[in-house]
Amino acid sequence: MTSNPSKRRKIVKKFVDEKKQIIRLGFPSISTKFAEFPIDIAADIGCEVIKEFLRLHRGLDFELVMIEQDSKVLNAFELKWKEIKDDLDAFKFQTKNGNLLQLKSDFGIECRFIVAETTWRMKPGTNQLNKQIFDAVGSRLHEELKRLYPNPGVVGEAYPVQIPKDSDLHIDEGIEQIIFVVSPNMNPSRPDPVSLGKAKELLKKTYHSMLNAFWELKIGQEYRPITTKKEKGSAFDILMKSASKSSFKTSAESSKRILPKVGGKGWTNVLLPYCQSPETFPKSEVYYYDDELVIIYDKYPKAKKHLLVIPRKYIDNIEELKKQDLQLVRALKEKGQCVIEKMKQENPKLFFRMGFHAVPGLRQLHMHVISQDFISPSLKHKKHWNSFTTEFFKDAEEIEKILEERGEIKFNKEYYENLLKSPLKCHLCDTKSIKFIPDLKKHLEEHWNES
DNA sequence: GTTCTAGAAC
DNA sequence: GTTCTAGAAC
């Protein structure tokens, strides 16, 4: 694909265009004003979530801007950020002392998206900033909010709304959407106060929702708060549905779902909730689901793109597969292939493998769909590397074949676990020897840049 | 599965 | 000084 010069030019041009146009999110500190959440803890939580978000999205085309009138709050965030920011580019998250609604006129920083706090009713004027926004946009804003979100808002969720093109906020400030967040309250004289413990958890959730909403809007997808129904008929749904010609299972099948035995260490069960109720997770975690399977983003991706395709029926691991599960394995493969095609459309440089770990660490059968760049901050240990680049990784193709021929799958645990200790070896070339993970990571970057 | 830590090895 | 390894806790 790199030999095609016109295609390559297109990629480069797209990159330059995106670089020119930086999409920004402007937001205030959440819950530290009227909600009386302790400032230092808020800064800890806010900065951690921001850090996690920047890690996940290492693009160059966006920026986060926190803008606050209260310099005590700003200082707390600045200090905390300095402490934890690691190698994350400073310019992707900046702080400013001023008014969120005058970022462009005061600082020349245009934010296409801004955040404002609200309460579960989403009524106008619940706080100062909120009031200024409703004053500036007029009654149309409240009507639009009511239309989009007829049900009460959930604390911790984000509710984006477009503002009219003829409003001053759009014309003067370049603001396109306001992401309203229902933030936790600790002030006993305001509605629904919660304890510090609960508020911490909810504040974290609020920052997550805010950033997820921003990200989805930025990449042109509609953000779906957990209280609203999933939309049908998008181009994406059509692409995914088109694959399931042979083995579409009805809900009668899924109702027969066998429940897993309780047990195992807590962390081994983390995949189960996704199978049982995928609809309760945000789009940022669940990529796709239907009656038969669910596709999620790996929480600790070991490459630029790393997803898990999981059957919704409970199957503990590959060794539990029987010949009658062949159709299921084929369905996983088929949907995995759809994901790959979609991802390759977005970035033609990517190429993929899909398959299973011979000895998985988590309960519930899961097929990895992983791009072969292996560039990711979550790839840290030899074990990670070897689990995807040695025989330990079993291609879906192979599993299908074994199941077809032998009707069951059995792997020697000890043999495969020992493979994880093998010396590091590049999966793309015969480099003499790479001793350390940091060297391997540098080497992988070179491969990526050359591709 | 991850994170954190201590001590060993390079 | 950096990186690895192994073990504990979650």
From TrEMBL:
<dbReference type="GO" id="GO:0005634">
    <property type="term" value="C:nucleus"/>
</dbReference>
<dbReference type="GO" id="GO:1990165">
    <property type="term" value="F:single-strand break-containing DNA binding"/>
</dbReference>
<keyword id="KW-0862">Zinc</keyword>
<feature type="domain" description="HIT">
    <location>
        <begin position="273"/>
        <end position="379"/>
    </location>
</feature>
<dbReference type="InterPro" id="IPR043472">
    <property type="entry name" value="Macro_dom-like"/>
</dbReference>
<keyword id="KW-0539">Nucleus</keyword>
<dbReference type="Pfam" id="PF11969">
    <property type="entry name" value="DcpS_C"/>
</dbReference>
<dbReference type="InterPro" id="IPR019808">
    <property type="entry name" value="Histidine_triad_CS"/>
</dbReference>
<keyword id="KW-0238">DNA-binding</keyword>
<keyword id="KW-0479">Metal-binding</keyword>
<dbReference type="InterPro" id="IPR011146">
    <property type="entry name" value="HIT-like"/>
</dbReference>
<dbReference type="GO" id="GO:0000012">
    <property type="term" value="P:single strand break repair"/>
</dbReference>
<dbReference type="GO" id="GO:0033699">
    <property type="term" value="F:DNA 5'-adenosine monophosphate hydrolase activity"/>
</dbReference>
<dbReference type="InterPro" id="IPR032566">
    <property type="entry name" value="Znf-C2HE"/>
</dbReference>
<dbReference type="GO" id="GO:0030983">
    <property type="term" value="F:mismatched DNA binding"/>
</dbReference>
<dbReference type="InterPro" id="IPR036265">
    <property type="entry name" value="HIT-like_sf"/>
</dbReference>
<protein>
    <submittedName>
        <fullName>HIT-like domain-containing protein</fullName>
    </submittedName>
</protein>
<dbReference type="GO" id="GO:0008270">
    <property type="term" value="F:zinc ion binding"/>
</dbReference>
<dbReference type="Pfam" id="PF16278">
    <property type="entry name" value="zf-C2HE"/>
</dbReference>
<dbReference type="GO" id="GO:0003725">
    <property type="term" value="F:double-stranded RNA binding"/>
</dbReference>
<dbReference type="GO" id="GO:0003697">
    <property type="term" value="F:single-stranded DNA binding"/>
</dbReference>
<keyword id="KW-0863">Zinc-finger</keyword>
